[in-house]
């Protein structure tokens, strides 16, 4: 009877239950990542919305000069970078789970996950480049659209 109870618990926990010597904890780590990244993303999104929309003049203040002024501070560059990475990895992991659940053949599953990985890496790479190569004072820009610290 006790052994039957253990198999019920294993079935209830699904793929997150790991018996000794049964492989890796990849799905457990993916499950934990979804919980922790989701909670952290909620906090970061509300901070982002508060700083951008509540402080200052609200939505009217958001323009090129606002973003340039914000990204002149390394703290906001890293904040936005971490938010981008977390959001992309969280969403990619969620789509990976959906692909695993709803794709019939292993060949289609591999193809979809390969496309998902390529798209996610491209967005993370491009977003990171934009954040760290952003020029707040571009040449030939209208003076009215530039932040105050530009010459």
From TrEMBL:
The keyword Nucleotide-binding does not apply. SUPFAM superfamilies: Fumarate reductase respiratory complex transmembrane subunits. Keywords: Heme, Iron, Membrane, Metal-binding, Transmembrane, Transmembrane helix. It is found in: Membrane. InterPro entries: SQR/QFR_C/D, SuccDH_FuR_B_TM-su. Its main location: membrane. This is Succinate dehydrogenase hydrophobic membrane anchor subunit.
């Amino acid at each position: 009877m006790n052994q039957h109870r253990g198999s019920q618990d294993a079935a209830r926990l699904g793929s997150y239950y790991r018996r000794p010597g049964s492989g890796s904890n990849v799905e457990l780590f993916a499950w934990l990542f979804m919980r922790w990244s989701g909670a952290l993303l909620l906090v970061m999104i509300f901070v982002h919305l508060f700083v951008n929309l509540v402080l200052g003049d609200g939505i009217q203040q958001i323009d090129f000069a606002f973003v340039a002024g914000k990204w002149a501070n390394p703290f906001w560059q890293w904040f936005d970078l971490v938010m981008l990475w977390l959001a992309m990895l969280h969403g990619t992991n969620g789509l990976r789970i959906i692909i695993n659940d709803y794709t019939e053949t292993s060949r289609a599953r591999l193809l979809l996950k390969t496309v998902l990985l390529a798209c996610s890496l491209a967005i993370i790479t491009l977003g990171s480049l934009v954040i760290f190569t952003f020029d707040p004072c571009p040449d030939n820009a209208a003076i009215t659209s530039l932040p105050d610290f530009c010459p």
